[in-house]
Amino acid sequence: MTDNRIEKQIELKAPISRVWRALTDHREFGEWFRVKLEDPFVPGQPIRGKILHPGYEHLQWEIVTQKLELEHLFSFTWHPYAINPNVDYSQEPSTLIEFNLEKTPSGTLLLLTESGFDNILANRRAEAFLRNDNGWTQQMKNIERYVAQNQ
């Protein structure tokens, strides 16, 4: 990990097809990520939803899907740690989130990368990095638990 990039990985005891569905089916993604999404992920299209995580329910979640490479790569961009409802983050640079999947003898290796923090405004960069680093640690546990309980 550097100041520009968050990297997390976890081995999930499930086949790639199962992990792929948990990542890319908008309803399943919403279950473990704690966001209510109405629409599917479509490359080049924004998707919005209501955050369900306690304390953040007043916020709208928004990403733009970048890539869906079947059972290999799912990526999107977003504005990191955009939690002030009185701020318009739309003109700020975004970061890129990539979920890469690799088959292992016992399941699937999920590699997560969030990059582009060096483009975030200096007054937000450190806090956004710290909060997202902690958030991704929790989200990796969430997807692990979700996939284990929903085989």
UniProtKB/TrEMBL annotation:
Query: Domain of life, per the record?
Result: Bacteria
The cross-references to Gene3D superfamilies, in alphabetical order and at most eight, read: 3.30.530.20
Activator of Hsp90 ATPase homologue 1/2-like C-terminal domain span: 13-147
Question: Cross-referenced SUPFAM superfamilies, in alphabetical order?
Answer: Bet v1-like (SSF55961)
What Pfam families does this protein map onto?
AHSA1 (PF08327)
The text of the family note is: Belongs to the AHA1 family.
Q: What is the protein name given in its UniProt record? A: Uncharacterized protein YndB with AHSA1/START domain
- Provide the species name: Granulicella arctica
